[in-house]
Amino acid sequence: MRATDLCFTEKVELLEKLNRGVSVRRLSEEYGVGVSTIYDLSKQKDKLLEFCIESDERRLLKSRKTPHRAKSSDLDRVLKERIRHRRSESVPLSRETIMSQARRYHDELKIQGSCAYSIGWYQKFQRRNGIKTVKICGDRGSADHEAAKEFVEEFARIIADEKLSPEQVYNADETSLF
């Protein structure tokens, strides 16, 4: 039998079928894993389900195979929240900025031991938390969101007052016509 690594969603699915009474041999054939693997998963059931429940990023469970956690879940939580907050403000964050912030939080949270907060750490942090690298192109990062909101409201009022149809409204942005 070939070696097969199951992702978390497959492991949970397998455990649910095992719970419903599907035979171990049938599951072994269906998932391409050994009988002993199924017994091992059965023993780890509580640990696997707990990890799935605690996971912030459900979509990562399809690619993750092992329940490795961060050495400091507090650091991960605080840093992830900081990144979300800064991104909601359209503030660009570089890898170096995030690594520097991690070092700062390491000291502030008084985390025992040392950590290099290297590029390797950053890549694992990204994978663990489902954080993607996002490029902010053009003027998007410096946009005045409040003014944009006011414009949308004003524009909707003008369309209603003038009784314009959708065909009469179009966007001339980036056409060089103005």
TrEMBL record:
Domain HTH CENPB-type: 63-135
Gene3D superfamilies associated with the record: Homeodomain-like (1.10.10.60)
Assigned keywords, A-Z: DNA-binding, Nucleus
Subcellular location: Nucleus
GO cellular component, as recorded: nucleus
Chief place where the protein resides: nucleus
InterPro entries: CenT-Element_Derived, Homeodomain-like_sf, HTH_CenpB_DNA-bd_dom, HTH_Psq
Annotated GO MF terms: DNA binding
The protein, known as: HTH CENPB-type domain-containing protein
Species, as recorded: Trichuris suis (pig whipworm)
